[in-house]
Amino acid sequence: MPLKVLYPSLQTAASSEQPARAYDLRDQGKRLRHAYVAVWRANTLGGYYNFEGTDWQKPPLIAHPNEQRKINHVTYMVFTDGSHIHLIAWRKGHMVYWLTNTLLEDLSNEQMLAIARSAKPLH
């Protein structure tokens, strides 16, 4: 089954997009899974944030969210680093999507939520 690609329509003003790429990985049962990643450079110091999607429904990365927020019929799994959102994930159909902040948490919590919520099907 082909990947259902979502792509955020919002980015931070200072970011520059890097080439997106598809990749394959294997789950714990050795089943082949498919994924893609789109990356943005958020600042000149090398801070990168990314948006990913996969057909692996239960990747370990999203196993233990700090909280869940339901916004417009979508349940977002929120992973925090102190008071900063580091990762936001959600399921849609047979896919899982997530947005990861930079290592230094350069994106604000509001930016993380806005970018995640802006994800739309890529045509």
Q: What is the alpha-carbon Rg in Å?
A: 14 Å
Portion in beta strands: over 45%
What global shape is seen?
globular
Give the assembly state of these chains: single chain
Any chance you could write out the topology, listing elements then pairs?
Elements: E1 6-8, E2 16-17, E3 21-26, E4 32-41, E5 48-54, E6 67-71, E7 74-81, E8 84-92, E9 95-100, H1 109-117, E10 119-121
Antiparallel strand pairs: 1-10, 2-4, 3-4, 4-5, 5-9, 6-7, 7-8, 8-9
Explain the overall architecture.
With 123 residues, the protein is mainly beta. The chain contains one helix and ten strands. The strands form two sheets. Strands 2, 3, 4, 5, 6, 7, 8 and 9 form an eight-stranded antiparallel β-sheet that branches. Strands 1-10 form a two-stranded antiparallel sheet. A hairpin with a 2-residue loop joins strand 6 (67-71) and strand 7. The protein is globular and about 40 Å long.
Q: In a nutshell, what does this entry contain?
A:
The protein is mainly β.
Provide keyphrases for this structure.
123 residues, mainly beta, eight-stranded antiparallel sheet, two-stranded antiparallel ribbon, 1 helix, globular
